[in-house]
Amino acid sequence: MRTTSQTTGAMLSGIGHEASIRWALLAPLAPLALGLWSSQALPQAYPSKAVRIFVSTGPGAPPDVMARLLAEKLVVSLGQPVIVENRPGASGSIGMAAVAKAPPDGHTIGIFSMGYTTAPSMVAQLPYDTERDLVPVTMLARDSNLLVVTANLPAKSVAELVALAKAKPGQLKFASGGNSTPAHLAGELLKREAGLDIVHIPYKTPPAGAAAVLAGDVDMMFGATVAVTPHIKSGRVRVLATATPKRIPAYPDVPTLVELGYPNVVISNWSGIVAPAGTSKEIVERLHLEIQKILALPDVLQRLERLGVEASPAGPEEFGALIRSELQRWNKLVRDAGIKPS
Known about the structure:
This protein is α/β, with parallel strands linked by helices. Helix content is 37%, strand content 18%.
């Protein structure tokens, strides 16, 4: 089902809206540039009309929040209306196809996140090719994943959780917001690295999965920092580790799974901006620089910090390299784990 949400001008009214999405997670080197550069020069009038940002989730999800935060600032720096349009569904492929098929004139861009990298394995007849039909513009941000367990589970550490799972093969359950979502992939990594027999329970949305952990219907979940922090503070879930390369400032006393002996259990909910292949290098560079300035603004950094998100404004080449490596990594895991569409 397609839903559309359009917002122009001032798009977030502060932390009140941000708090409402705490559940979500709560994402070019020559021809390898995820779409070839056009040789056309930057039009003097660019942008000459409204800029659309396609988001492949519903309103309130982390990519949507990032898009609206950008729109609020871009409307000033670009001097044109900036419209956020939601096109959720099919592992992000509906929204990304809309970007890929748009005119490459810089007036249509999209939010691409880590969760969409599995689309080639999860969507039959994907209507676009990520590397051929999309060009990276800039990285936006990263969010951390925390391994949490329900409060009544008798495991106070990862070692105790692993021991419990091995003592009860096939009995412990972990939740996610659906097949091939970051929470699911993180759980599959832990299963593989620790040699566990734990059962994946997919829910329709990330908040539904989190609610199942809170209720004790499932035992554990990998959740985005912004999504699980309130429940950690309330004592309704217990955090055991982070799925990050190094400890995160918000939880300096919580170990990483890397340091606990599981070096491959690392996953990041990253997001960035892409444009249709053929968009000129000049337009891409203009957008990258404008967005980089926005991500350095003190009020933007403060809002991201409150959401538990880290700004990560890498350029087109670095972002393109990340997308290519993540496409290979996660689609291999999907195939190896036998993950199928929900």
